[in-house]
């Protein structure tokens, strides 16, 4: 069976109906374990004190904010090349989830930055590119709502998604491109020497797994909703013509 | 049971509160809209079958 067969809306709904409960339970379990572990059972950092506990929300949310947009990019490219409605609707479904993750990353970053940097906000490369990414999320969702024809909306939002991908990547690598600003480099790296200490790293990995599973579960649910909403619009349009 | 967060207690607790409220709102809104659209679609399909 080819992967493209899941571009059929009925097959997609049938498959995600089966996958949604275990993914949602997995998300809940990982989030509960990761956050309780991180909040209650990890020590304070010798420099940042107890504020280090914000890492268990800030880093996974920032990671998902960027990767949600990259998932939307892949789905948009599939729409542009193969014209599968499910992929366009999956991109639409992911946008509010990604936007919420971006708000969480920006809010927790500001709250964390105030005692550590002495300011809520700075026009630092990473912070600024993240703010621009959030504005792209808002623009993307507004564009979907503004255009009545679903196919035209999918075409135009896909182009917007391609343009916004520059900022999604920039927000990830801004610290490397411009060696200035307040934000430090990556907290997670495959290079062991650059990683946070194991005592923070392991609960952080569990939280990241929880955020990834939460994103997948929400995208499944919201894509199903978008598929049904599209069918409903088509049926109502047919009723009006009859 | 509550860890001693010291002078940063407000900072840490407000970061957790903001994040958990936003996540809970996102999940609740997604479930609410899924249920509403599913029930609306059923009504439209039923109307189509009757006519």
From TrEMBL, chain A:
PANTHER family with a match to the protein in the record: CYTOCHROME B_B6 PROTEIN-RELATED, HEME EXPORTER PROTEIN C
Molecular function as annotated in GO: heme binding; heme transmembrane transporter activity
One record GO biological process: cytochrome complex assembly
UniProt subcellular location: Cell inner membrane; Membrane
UniProt domain Cytochrome c assembly protein: residue ranges: 4-183
GO cellular component terms, semicolon-separated: plasma membrane
Function: Required for the export of heme to the periplasm for the biogenesis of c-type cytochromes.
Name of the protein in its database record: Heme exporter protein C
Principal cellular location given in the protein's record: membrane
TrEMBL record, chain B:
Lineage of source species: Bacteria, Pseudomonadati, Pseudomonadota, Alphaproteobacteria, Rhodobacterales
Gene Ontology biological-process annotations: cytochrome complex assembly; heme transport
Alphabetical list of InterPro entries matching this protein: Haem_export_protD_CcmD
Family: Belongs to the CcmD/CycX/HelD family.
Any coiled-coil regions, as ranges: none
Protein name, entry field: Heme exporter protein D
GO cellular component: plasma membrane
Membrane topology recorded in Swiss-Prot or TrEMBL: Single-pass membrane protein
Annotated keywords: Cell inner membrane, Cell membrane, Cytochrome c-type biogenesis, Membrane, Transmembrane, Transmembrane helix, Transport
Chain ranges passing through the membrane: 12-32
Functional note: Required for the export of heme to the periplasm for the biogenesis of c-type cytochromes.
Subcellular locations according to the entry: Cell inner membrane
């Amino acid at each position: 069976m080819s992967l493209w067969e899941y571009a059929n809306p009925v097959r997609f709904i049938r498959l995600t109906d089966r996958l949604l409960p275990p993914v949602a339970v997995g998300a809940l379990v990982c989030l509960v374990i990761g956050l309780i572990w991180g909040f209650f059972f990890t020590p304070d950092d010798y420099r940042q004190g107890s504020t280090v506990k914000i890492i268990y929300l800030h880093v996974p949310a920032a990671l998902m904010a960027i990767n949600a947009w990259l998932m939307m990019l892949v789905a948009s490219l599939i729409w542009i090349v193969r014209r599968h409605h499910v992929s366009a609707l999956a991109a639409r479904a992911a946008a509010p989830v990604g936007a919420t993750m971006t708000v969480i990353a920006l809010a927790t970053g500001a709250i964390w930055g105030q005692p550590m940097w002495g300011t809520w906000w700075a026009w630092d490369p990473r912070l600024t590119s993240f703010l621009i990414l959030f504005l792209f999320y808002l623009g993307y969702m507004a564009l979907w709502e503004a255009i009545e024809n679903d196919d035209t909306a999918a075409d135009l939002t896909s182009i917007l998604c391609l343009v916004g991908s520059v900022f999604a990547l920039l927000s990830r690598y801004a610290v490397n491109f411009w060696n200035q600003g307040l934000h430090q480099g990556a907290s997670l790296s495959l290079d062991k020497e650059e990683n946070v200490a194991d005592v923070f790293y392991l609960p952080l990995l569990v939280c990241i797994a929880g955020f990834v599973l939460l994103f997948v579960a929400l995208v499944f649910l919201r894509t199903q909703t978008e598929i049904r909403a599209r069918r409903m619009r088509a049926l109502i349009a047919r009723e009006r013509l009859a | 049971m509550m860890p001693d967060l010291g002078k940063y207690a407000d900072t840490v607790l407000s970061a957790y509160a903001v994040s958990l409220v936003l996540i809970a709102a996102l999940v609740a809104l997604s479930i609410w809209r899924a249920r509403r659209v599913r029930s609306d679609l059923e009504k439209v399909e039923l109307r189509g079958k009757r006519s």
